[in-house]
Amino acid sequence: MIISRNWLNEWIELSEISTQTIVNTLNSIGLEVDSFKSVKTPEKVVIGKVLEKTKHENSDKLNICKVDVGNEILQIVCGAKNVDKDQFVAVSLVGAVLPSGLEIKPAKLRGVESMGMICSSNELGFGKSNEGIMVLDESMGELVLGKALNTYELFNDEIIEIELTPNRGDCLSLYGIARDLSVALDLNLKELNPLKENENSVGIGRILSIKNQSDVEGFFTYKALEIKKEFKLNITIQIRLALIEAYKSNNVENLLAYATHASGVVFCAYDFHKLCKECQIDEKIILEIKTQEHGEYGVYYKDELIALAGIEQEDKFKINDESKIIIIEASYTHPQIIANAVAFYKKKNDMTYRTLRGSEPKLSLGMEYLFNECLKISTISVFSGNQQVLKENEAKIIRFFGADIDKIIGIFIDKNTLVKILRKLGFEINVVNDEQFNVKIPLHRSDITNIADIAEEIVRMIGIDNIPSNALEFKEKNRLNQVYYDYQEQKKLRLKASHNGYFESIHYVLDNEEELTRLGFKCIKNKLINPITKELNTLRSTLINHLLNAVSFNLRNSKKKIKLFECGSVFDEFSNEHTKFAMIFCGYKEEAKIANKAKPVLVDFYTFLAELKSIIGEFSLQKSEYKFLSPYEQANVYKNNICIGFIGRIHLNIENKRDLAKTYVCELDLNGLKQDFKIAKAYSKFPSISRDLSIVIPKGFEYENIKNTITKLNIEILESFRVVDLYTDENLGDFYSITINLVFRDFEKTLEDNIVLKCIEKIIKALDDEYGLKLR
């Protein structure tokens, strides 16, 4: 963004502020100054007037001019096409040194003496403003012959170039820069002269009408002008456009660029007669605004797209030097809409550069600035009135307390100062009470989304250097979360398993679908399109198959005792992921040694259960039916009355097919293994009494029935009970003798035999009444 100090002065009074102060202020409020320089015409360059112009006898391109420079009349040979009689021009006198290093000396051109040089803006270091020499006018001030050109503000200026971040589209104009400076320097913005239209001029409604769809949420304003005769821009506009490198060949386009750079409003111009080739001045055209496929807004005439607001304009409807009636469109589209749509269009231009970052939504500001300049040109007739489309969503409101801002910034901010800063930046503030504020975000600050952004605006204007430094106070936040706790639970489980002699085994999350199906597990319904191998062609639905294969591998390598565990993910048939913990014990219970005379016994179900208990804690068992487990040694594992998995011996057929020794496995849901907090309980100081109860039960009778019956009796002094023996012989026939050990204890006293006997009788009677079970 290029700023002319004198041009900026139209928006905010900076005559008492040094350029260095402006530069420092811009840097402090986050508008980084990339460079700044002084542009000033050299000494001995004065205002002159061409009194006479004659053709050079020996050249078709040169003219001999008589130029009045106040105190004398000079003869100057000039080759510019546009030099003419009665023009006020910039004259470099003999002795002047131009920015290019050229020193003006008396010279003869084709035999004719020349005592100076009539200059163009480019030759004086102000950029190219037209073809040929500069023609001065009173827009720069009163023209006094012989007066040094660098005494006029227009030719004694300072240029500041700012490197803006993409979120600061609001500062892509002099008005936006002035708005920020007004807060930082505690100055007021100047009020522009209101637009005063000629009461007798033709109304725009005679030639133009606007329609729009209900979902169009952008802003559109239309005005029109008629060019009666070719005109030229005044020298002020020419030089300012040259300094910002925006000078174009068409003067109306130059006016639009001038107004856009000043106000930030984006303009588009249509040739009335290109839209309606046969239309007369009193005929009306109707433009329609519609929402496009990607959310952008299209401008249509008779169902033909003539422009995409803020993106591009169709070439065949653009203005040129022959245009007479011109329709001017000012528009605003939210930058997010532009961003979503612009990727689908190849053209990138100055318009999209602005609209992507956010153009000025206050369209009336730009229109008034533009048409005030148009009214100064006698050959332009302005149509009165305008056509508008103004619809917007409810503005975003951020609610916060003053203390929240103080906490973010680190110092106390006076609330009057806070309100003053935000209001001057264009925010609307509703003060609920002394501490609570509701701030409505203006459209020109679409980058403001939360309280941190509000705090940043306050810091920018107060100045980061004005906030006292505090010692760093380092407080590490508690970052423990459920993921961490789950990891710790899993780690404890793995450590307990390893402490009990189990080695951790890790396998692919993929498995063999055929092997899983033979074991009776359901595989995922969604087949893998490109499995890495034929053997690993599906996501595993259990950890057991991999562990069985690992055991087979170890047995083939002469291992006799194999204890493995794995913790990992499995997937159900609907591809839902679950985390499981599995163990496998195969072969001998212990290694061969002197104590067992080198003849160790094979592992049994109770040994495996005992080791599982030492790893996961208390659990209970209930009946289960898994095809890959032995029907005589298997059960569902319950913890806290919830089934968390299964345990049992591998079916004999599978052991034989896979050449396995006696093998026990279990697989448990990891979520069900989370350890509860230990709760301390009171214990009795008095001794317990233990009694065994032997009962005859039919074969196939479930112990769970006996357990439930005893539990329902709710005997207070019964501390625990468990099965200690299961016996049968020929005399018992189709019955078993089951021995239950009962432990009694009282918290208040030492138990007497008769009290224990009554409790045992109560248990015997309940078993007899409910199931007909008798003592052995």
Structure description:
The chain has 19 helices and 36 strands. The protein has 776 residues and is α+β, with helices and mostly antiparallel strands. A 7-stranded mixed β-sheet has the order 24-27-28-32-31-30-29, sandwiched between helices. A hairpin with a 2-residue loop joins β30 and β31 (642-650). The mean pLDDT is 90.
Count of individual helical segments: 19
The helicity comes to: 25-40%
CATH architecture of the largest domain: 3-Layer(bba) Sandwich
Number of domains: 5
Task: Write the CATH fold name of the largest domain.
Answer: Phenylalanyl-tRNA Synthetase, Chain B, domain 3
User: What is the CATH homology-level superfamily of the largest domain?
Assistant: Phenylalanyl-trna Synthetase, Chain B, domain 3
Q: How can the largest sheet be summarized? A: 7 strands, mixed
State the low-pLDDT regions, or none.
none
Structural class: alpha+beta
Proportion of residues in β-strands:
25-35%
CATH class label of the largest domain: Alpha Beta
Q: Residue-averaged pLDDT, rounded?
A: 90
Instruction: Specify the overall morphology.
Output: elongated
Secondary structure: number of strands: 36
- Distance from first to last alpha carbon: 103 Å
The radius of gyration is 47 Å
